[in-house]
Structure formats: structure tokens, C-alpha cells
Predict the 3D structure of the following.
Amino acid sequence: QVYLVESGGGLVQPGGSLRLSCAASGFTLDNYAIGWFRQAPGKEREGVSCISSSDGNTYYADSVKGRFTISRDNAKNTVYLQMNSLKPEDTAVYYCHAGDSVAEYWGQGTQVTVSL
């Protein structure tokens, strides 16, 4: 069975940190570009960050640049999103996505809530 599982979400105060994990089962993540997306209530899903499969190049949305860091641990078949200096506007369900020219996979999402 092939799937992605996100974890690490939760409730955190503004200025706090969380680390999200995206673990793959049934396939090898290092063959895929991995993206983190988020969707806040009433808003469209937006791209947050991604990391390439080949050279490890990364991309960040302007809204998270300098605060979020994406990384991959191929030995653990897991991709991480370290989120620092969290703001209330970062509140959303966060999803990871794995894709190449043939297939794509989505996780079920993990809730991140930034509030006092």
C-alpha cells in the first residue's frame, strides 16, 4: 500500500515552533520532489515549500521565507518542515505532496493552529 502520512501538527502560541514530518510508505521519497501545502478555512490550498529530488534545491513562499525550513532524511524516508516564529496566519491544515512525471501522492493533512 502506498501512502504519505503527516504528523507533528498541534496548537502553538505565536512565536513558537513546530516540526512537521511527512513519512512515506510503499515507495521511496528520494525519487520524488516533495512539497508542503496548506489550506486555511475558506481559502484555497497554497504552496508553502518544496524540495527537489535530484539536487536538493528548495523553494519557499514569500510568506514563510526565513521562518520555515524544508529538509529530507532519505534514510528515514521522511521529509520535514521546521516552522519557527509561527504567526496566527500560519494556521491551516498542512499537507505533503510527492510527485514525479508519472505519479503523485497526497497525505491526509495535519492541523496547525497558532493562537494564544
Summary: The chain has a mean pLDDT of 95.
